[in-house]
Every structure is written in C-alpha cells, then in structure tokens.
Amino acid sequence: xxxxxxxxxxxxGVAGVFASPAHATLALTPAGTADGFTLTPFVSxxxxxxxxxxxxxxxxxxxxxxxxxxxxAKIYIFPNANGQxxxxxxxxxxxxxxxxxxxxxxxxxxxxxxxxxLFGGAYESFSNTGSxxxxxxxxxxxxxxxGMWGDPANGHIIAASYSGLIDINPxxxxxxxxxxxxxxxxxxxxxxxxxxxIENGGNIQAVSIATGAxxxxxxxxxxxxxxTGVIDGGKFNGFIVxxxxxxxxxxxxxxxxxxxxxxxxxxxxxxxxxxxATGNLFLSQYELVDTLGCxxxxxxxxxxxxxPEPATWAxxxxxxxxxxxxxxxxxxxxxxxxx
Length: 339
Known about the structure:
With 339 residues, this protein is mainly beta. It contains three helices and 27 strands. Strand 4 and strand 5 (74-78) form a beta hairpin.
C-alpha cells in the first residue's frame, strides 16, 4: 500500500503532498448571498495533508452518505446531516489502494451507489455497510479515469473512462461510448438526462449524451474548474455551478457564458456530488465537504424541485390531520352536524 501511495503522489505531481494543510474556509461571497445560495459544512476533519481529501459522495439505499478518504485509506458512512466530523461516522472501513490515484469517485444512480478508484479502477457496487463488489458484464473491460455521475433519467452511470466518456448500465454491465475523444475530469448530468457537463482543458463543456457532440464550451476564466452541478428550477434554472481548484465556486450563465463567483476562500475544490435526498450539492475541499443549496423551488443535479421530501410529506399529513381535528371541534362547538 505504501508503494502504491508513493506512485499516486508522483502522478499528481504535488511536491508538498505531506505538508501541513493551510487553514482556509470556503464562504459565500456577497453575490452568492444576494443570489440566495446557502453553504454549510457537511463533514470536516480530513486533515491528513496534501491536496486531496474526500472527492465525492453517494446516497446509499438506506439514506446514509458514503464517501472516501485517501488520507487514511478508509470508506466512511455518515448520517445525512450537516455539521459532522470524522468521529460522527457510522462506520469507517479500510480499503486497499489499487490504482495510481486511489481516491474514490462515487455516483448515485437508480437509488444505488457505484464507485471506482481513479486512474484505472474497476466499477463497483456499494452496499449500505460500505462493502463493494465489481459490476459484471461488458463494463469489466473498461476502467475509470476521473469522475462519474448518475443519470437521473434512466439510472445509468455517465463516467470518464480510459475509453472516453461512457454510458454504463449498471444492471447488466453494458457500456456505450458517448465520445471516445473526451477524457474529462469532473462529470455531471442534467436532470433530464440529455446533457453531460465536463471539465476539459481548463474549461467546462456541455456534451450531448445521445450523440457525443460538444454543445457548448464555457471558459474556466483561470479558476481551474473541476466538478459541476446544474441547477433545476428557480431563477437560476439551467445555470452551472462549478467547484474550482483555486478555492472558489463559480456560477455560469449558459446563455452568455459569463461566470460569477458565489463562494471563495476555500482550500482546493474538486469533485461535486448530488445529495439526492435534499436537492443540495456536495462540494469537496481537500479537508472537508460542504453542501451548497440554491434556495427554494430549485435543486442542483438531483431531486425534482417542488416535490416534498418524505419528512415534508409527514409534516403535511400531520398538518392536514390537525386541520381536520380543529374543524371537528368547531363543528361540535357550533352545534353543526358532524359526519
């Protein structure tokens, strides 16, 4: 394992990978606050040094959150609640380094979590306990490169592989190459399943999942963009959130291509992942994970806006029951007939 980690350090080319991490706090800019975004730490405490921490997250079938940590070679499972530390994890399972970059990419697809170690890992299916098994079928002939995202429309996985940008059916293991010439970093998918958003050459590109055609290219403006997420609903419907390596978070207007900075002061932004239970977006930094919300009536790459979550339905039902009971009491008090 030690030798594999040394190879990993050499590949990423970070001379100070074991240096003490700088203290940085990602915070909303005045523009981000005015636009109605919220930013809350999800889990902190990944202070292992270097430029890489928990890269991506998945929502397990039981509702808990799974994420990895290359710093201590563990797969963590947390409750889906903000303000946690490594000590509040439900479980922490050690894993073996198998690639040159043994961070985990995760994707929530069809209600399940899939993942792979970067730079050559096999695609795995994860259980509620954090254990994993390799997907079977054609996908065994493909290896992950950097990044993946669940397609909300059909439960497939859109991934950056060594064979290009690919579409994986995790049920039968079938693979379709979307574009054999694209080897992007961060990957996200629009809620309707038609468009993949990728980082490529320091820019963000929109790619047709059906044809592989590049639909648009948005300048990274020197911020070293990485993970993304697309807003669905609300006043920023269709806008693209970008987690940047320079510790900022951008918001791209797809009609003009202009980018505003809605958060800054972070350490090093990398992958993003959708919290499919809340409609928020996980933003990885090297030492923590934040959650970004876009306000009422919208979501970022996950749930359909305006559809109440299970907890909301429960509150509504209680409210309806209370209204019925109050009406019953009023009818009795006034002497009206009660059905």
